[in-house]
Amino acid sequence: MPSEIQNAKDSPAASKPSRFNIIPRNVWLYKTTIIKWGLVGYFIRIAMMPLFAHADLILNARMGAILYQNHQLLLSTYPPTVPLIFGSVYALFSPVLPASVLSGLTSNTSFLPTSLFSLYQLSQPDVMIFIFVSKIPYLVIDLALALLLLRIIDDEKKALLAFKLWIANPIAIFVSYAMGQFDIIPAFFLVLALYFFKERKELSSIASLGVCAAVKIFGLLFVPPMILIYLKEHTSLKSRAKRLSLMLIAGFLPLIISQIFAFLTPVYYESANTAWPYKSEVNGFFGKTFLSRGEQGNPLTLGLFHYALDYSISVSLGGNSETLYFLPLVYGLFLLGIFYVKSWSFSRFWKFSLVFLLTYYALAFFHSQWFVLVLPLLVLLVAEDYHRYFKLYLLLIPLFFILAWYWNDFLVSVFVPIVHGAYFWPGPHNLLNYFGLPVYPTLSIFRSIFSSLCIIFILLILRIDRLFLRDRNQTKSS
Amino acid sequence: MTRKRLNVVMLILAIILIPVAYLAILNIVIPKDGTRFLIGWEDNTFQTEWTLAYLGPVNASMSSESGVLKVFGDGDLKEGNLVTAQRTSDLEFDLNKYKYINVSIMTSGFDTAARIVIWTESNPDYAYTVLLKTYNDTNWHTEIIDLSYFGIDGSSLFMIELGWMQLYDGSSSTAFYRQLSFSSLEVT
Which residues of A touch B33 (CB under 8 A)? Predict the structure, then answer.
């Protein structure tokens, strides 16, 4: 490192970093290293983009393709912002989009079973161009997130370490460029909100969380805590009321706009096969009724309840169907913690958010792509205290990939664009069976270890950063 | 142009051009053949062996012309009324292999649900409804159904039913079927 600093100082440009430079001032001395790592990261991502895709990418891309081609909205459990993002990308790159893939995705006269849909679409000629284009927003957002990490940490060496950890993050790379999931987008807006929080830009941080929520509704959970923290800084009732109304507008505006957009866009008549034995795959219209996961109702609300409650640990409290759900319980504690602690520094807030997310991942149903939301915060943590957390972080990575084995097709079906027959390759379940190991109990052992690791992270953060303790001087003054 | 600026321009060009060249090469190198269905059994004429069955107070009829099977019913149609064409013989083939039903369907409107039932034995306990779907237009819709997801396998079928179910009260409904086949999937 010292030689790098010396070299950078020798260069004439080293003394002239502009305010709007991509590489921020605090790490300007390391610009050569940043550019090298950035380029390597860029080309690794570029190399992966056209080669791999999971069924989920095709299903998300289909929403965007229908919006772009048919000007119709395919109703789903995702907010309408998701098809809007994909649709905008397809509109932007329309000259290079392969017509065969596009027509296959948007046809309402050719139906395949869900089990075959991704295989068929990913075996189309020129599909690689299509999946490459679909991932372009991930690439932009991903690299922007890496650069944001440079700005969010003041210490130059720690900022550089965070940048490197993100660029070389195998989980983020796998989820975004092998699976093709879009969770990198809400993760970026969560970090952007933290950056604005650090800069004490109230409305910008709340608006960023609003955009995060407009892409993935989970982000909405961070809006009330941040509003509460900001409100603590205003003493008069009038000032609080004014700020609250502005923050509510900023926080909910992206969601409201996306809902207005959905309201104004004609609905695509997705025909649901109600005879299909797996209700979770019965999505679409039957007559005039829309079914989401086989149930009648608003898909967004049904999705929210399904993912937030059904995937959460729950305990029946007896009586008339009274249930204690884990996620609202932890969230309640999260909010109470915000009330309890008076002073909220940037560091305290992101660590508190990290503890909340890790508690969720430790004790609720594990969805691989959802873990991307916590990754930037974990990177911040490791960068801040490398010696304490790096080994734990390294342990977490292989455990993540083992947990991805819960879905037998996860690690093999992503190869379908290159080798179409990969769809029928034996998956990890077959491998475990081959060695005489019961699939789910074996994976559950690793799941438990993963949870224990998350809990160790939580305990260390709580112990070292004393998140729930009031500042001494504040306690005295109060 | 200074050397430094030239380097920046070269770098930007590389960032843009390398991915384009990479995609072009991949498009040439990676095999493009995808999936195709191999037919094990088919009925493109619907001329023989098909009989009519129905449930409910309905004037039902069926006909076949130019390879299209028409299943029709009118009267005071109520929700749940069924009209169906059944074929009960000459359906011997390996269902484990030819497990995909491929068929084109058209209905008279979204109040009429296209309905396909597979009977593996004469016992109604072995009748599997594999498709129940509505369309909001009067176009032909190609359907491919994987029977293995319904637990259907074996070396023969007892019966196949192609018909419709009334979804809302109405006066007449029709479902059309063509190009019925049981196929296997080949991935290259």
Answer: 123, 420
How many C-beta atoms lie closer than 10 Å to residue B72's C-beta?
19
ipTM: 0.91
pLDDT tens for B38-95 read 999 898 888 878 999 999 889 999 999 999 999 999 999 999 999 999 998 667 778 8
Question: Mutation test of the interface with chain B: which of A273, A289, A418, choosing the one with the most B Cβ atoms within 10 A?
Answer: A273
- Cβ contacts of A335 within 8 Å, gap of 6 or more: A224, A225, A228
Sign of the dihedral defined by the CA atoms of residues A421, A422, A428, A431, in that order = positive
User: CA-CA distance, A234 to A240, in Å (whole number)?
Assistant: 6
What whole-number distance in Å separates Cα of residue B55 and Cα of residue B171? 15
Radius of gyration, alpha carbons of chain B: 25
Q: What is the pLDDT of residues A187-234, one digit of tens each?
A: 999 999 999 999 999 999 999 999 999 999 888 999 999 999 999 888
CB pairs under 8 A between A and B: 114
Mean pLDDT over A422-438 rounds to 89
Q: Are A296 and A279 in contact (CB under 8 A)?
A: no
Chain B residues lying within 8 Å of A135, measured CB to CB:
none
Q: Judged by CB atoms within 8 Å, which residues 88-147 of B form the interface with A?
A: 110-111, 113, 115-116, 129-137, 139-146
* Domain boundaries B35-187, corresponding CATH code: 2.60.120.260
DSSP, collapsed to helix, strand or coil, labels residue A470 as coil
Interface of B with A in 154-183 (CB under 8 A): 167-168
Determine the pLDDT at residue A475: 44
Query: How close B50 gets to chain A, by Cα (Å)?
Result: 23
Domain boundaries, chain B: 1-32, 35-187
Inter-chain CB proximity B133 and A286 less than 8 Å: yes
- Contact indicator for B175, B164 with CB cutoff of 8 Å: yes
- pLDDT above 70: percentage of residues in chain A: 92
In this complex, the residue of A13, A120, A129 whose CB is nearest that of residue B23 is A129
Nearest by Cα to B149 from B112, B187, B125, B118: B118
**CB atoms A128 and B136 under 8 Å:** no
| Residue A96 tokens, joined | 């290079």
Residue range A132-143: mean pLDDT, rounded: 97
What is the value of pTM for the model shown?
0.90
Contacts of B79 in chain A (CB under 8 A): none
Closest-CA residue of B relative to A11 is: B4
Give A264-289 pLDDT, tens digit per residue: 999 999 999 999 998 888 989 999 99
